[in-house]
Amino acid sequence: MATQNTKTLARLMLAPSVGLLLVWMIVPLAMTLWFSFQNYNLLNPGNVSFAGLFNYKYFYTDPAFFQSIWNTMLLVGGVLLITVIGGVALALLIDQPMFGQGIVRILVISPFFVMPPVAALVWKNMIMHPGYGVFADISRFFGLQPIDWFAQWPLFSIVIIVSWQWLPFATLILLTALQSLDGEQKEAAEMDGANFLNRFIYLTVPHLARSITVVILIQTIFLLGVYAEILVTTNGGPGYASTNLPFLIYRTALLGYDVGGASAGGIIAVILANIVAFFLMRAVGKNLDK
Predict the structure, then answer these.
(1) Residue 111, preceding peptide bond in cis (omega within 30° of 0)
(2) End-to-end distance of the chain based on CA atoms, in angstroms?
(3) What are the backbone angles phi and psi of residue 204, rounded to the nearest 5°?
(4) Sheet strands (E) in the chain
(5) What is the per-residue DSSP string for 216-243?
(6) How far apart are CA 288 and CA 82, in angstroms?
(7) What pLDDT, in 10s, does the model give residues 76-86?
(8) Are 149 and 241 contacting, i.e. CB atoms less than 8 angstroms apart?
(9) Per-residue CA distances from 250 to 211, 223, 244, 265 (Å)
(10) pTM of the complete model
(11) What is the Cα–Cα distance from 92 to 86, expressed in whole angstroms?
């Protein structure tokens, strides 16, 4: 009886904060849904009328819509590929005994704490700039023509920048999982004559499977909303070559002043994100239950 009363009291104490959180989430979503059915332009805010499904049709038939979906998929897939493979490699490297191991770990993790706009500005003006960037200096040193990364390889450049930001997160998660691997299993594998490659394939990778799944899930949720790096570097161009779905919504709302169309795009983005999250959660659940 006392336990039941304690649970009831705990629920009552949590109710105000949970209710506030629900309001904080539901009200903006409800307003976005409402605006998606309205003709609302920032250049004429006093003239608001019901638009029905016109905003959804307008956004869906936008020539940049499917391009932005494809760019979003390429961005998320590219970053996941680099961060998972790079995270495993860095975790294996950092796990080895070395001088100044603690300092090395801090340096590897530090990019995760750099704000996205700042990271994008550093890469744009100090590393990838075709005139005085680090990559341009390296190209000229070898007698090659510097590459204008954001003009010639815009989406790939953004993938590199975002991967640099998220690689420390993947490394930290995978390093923690790697250090939880039983040392006796390693010793037994070595005594059985297994070389490094065999130990990695049959011992390390299965042990890291759950952590890799968690990394993919968490990063995918955040990568679907990448925006600042695109705004700072390419502004979605050239053309729509680096425009993903969040940036297309921004362009519709604040450059096209079309709040109704952008709201419809936001609802479409929420639906697509929930579909992705649903399938990811099912995949994660199966993996974590093993």
Answers:
(1) no
(2) 37
(3) -70, -50
(4) 38-41, 44-50
(5) HHHHHHHHTT--HHHHHHTTT-STTTT-
(6) 23
(7) 999 999 999 99
(8) no
(9) 34, 16, 10, 9
(10) 0.84
(11) 10
